[in-house]
Amino acid sequence: MLYLTSDKFPIFIPFGVIGFYRYFWYIIRILAFFAYRPVPLPLNPTYVASEDVTIIVPTIDAGDEFVEAARSWLEGAPKEIIIVTEERMRGPLEQLAAAVDPRVRVLTVPYANKRLQMVEGIRHTTTDIVVFADDDALWPPTMLPHVLACFEDQKVGGVGTSQRVTPVGKRLTVWEVLAAFRLSIRNVEIAASTHIDGGVPCLSGRTAAYRTIILKDPEFLHGFTHDFWLGKYHLNSGDDKFLTRWLVSHGWNTYIQCCKEAELLSTMKPNWRFLKQVLRWTRNTWRSDLRSLFKERYIWHRFPYVAYTMVDKLFNPFTLLVGPCLVIYLITKSTKAVENGGYHLPWWDIVLSYFVWLLVTRTCKLLPHLWHRPEHIVYVPAFIVFGYYFAIMKVYALFTLHETGWGTRAGVGDPTEATKAVDNQRQPPASSAGAWPQEKEAEMRRYDPEAVAYRRAD
């Protein structure tokens, strides 16, 4: 490489500095990942799943995978499972629920809107802890005790878990392997950030637990269902990002229980529709991170390392695209005669050197996944290609943040109409199943006022 760059070596120094900077922080992240420790189970737990946990599952098209998922949830012995769907799906889901367990209850909302469905479940919850789960999330039997262990710290308001991809069919497709690569990298990142400063960019909506007292707050319910981008575009997806930001801006701590005992299995789109999922997630990340960094700003002093990772991700697609641009520039120079300023190596040598560098560095980043699934090493080139597609897609997503549709699900209602339904909906009477016992209000006094003071974000 020195021979390649000997003509005008100084122009490569900035790129070397960027590379050193990125891999320096990557090493820090790896060290923090190995230093991370999950919260151990308490000898005398404050919270017990059979008394203190309600699982809320918003869905519109639950299939056979729902039955398998529900049975995995029930192995943790929650007090109740609430399935919230739209009215036209009540019959099929009640049949599925009856086939699973009497603890599974089905509620409906007028419109297929995830946030509206979550709020309906919250209104009918009487336990101290709410766990939101996707309708295809498979849990180990040890999930709930290990999640509840984190709530022994009374300042913790939300808990997330590590994740792994399970195939829709008999084996993982290339799209599912790409998703598995992304999740393995994410597991490292969230464990590292939890160890470094206790924060996390997002408690994933696939499975996350929260204190019910936070979700019952009228200010939260209003903000959750009246969430607009630029005050104009009503948001339906991105609920997990909103919840995480709410915890940060209202003084609550978060924790990621990253261990096999709390690792969920989730399906991903096994075909090109996975790209539409990623596009929706990317838009949500742009919107949420920009708000967190520049509007609310609590993240800077509460979780500075997480703030750094957010800033890094803002510039990441642009810095990633610098590499191929530089290679194209070198190829152009190499095709000219040496006397006209050409380089000593032929263009194919430049391309080969660059690809080998990418192959080695990307394989290193995927080692946590490849350690358990070494046969997936054949997909590393596909992951490299996907990385550059993802960088371009992130730039595209930045300029299309006004598009708030779900993208992969038909039948999801207009969020504005759904919000009207929330505004018109009355709180359940004190005698109903959805009432929040008055004695729970006294629970607020148990917490550190400075840690949980409810204040309106900027």
Supply Rg. Answer: 24 Å
Element string (H = helix, E = strand):
HHHEHEHEHEHEEHEHHEEHEEHHHHHHHH
Please count the helical segments. 19
State the helicity in percent bands.
40-55%
Distance between the termini: 50 Å
Strand content: 5-15%
CATH class group of the largest domain: Alpha Beta
**Main sheet attributes: strand count, strand direction, barrel closure:** 7 strands, mixed
Strand order of the largest sheet: 3-2-1-4-7-5-10
- Summed over residues and divided by their number, the pLDDT gives a mean of 85
How many strand units?
A: 11
Count of structural domains:
2
Any idea of the CATH topology of the largest domain?
Spore Coat Polysaccharide Biosynthesis Protein SpsA, Chain A
Assign the structural class, choosing from mainly alpha, mainly beta, alpha/beta, alpha+beta, or little secondary structure: alpha/beta
Transmembrane segments: 12-36, 314-332, 376-399
Biased composition (Basic and acidic residues): 438-447
Pfam families: Glyco_tranf_2_3
Main location: membrane
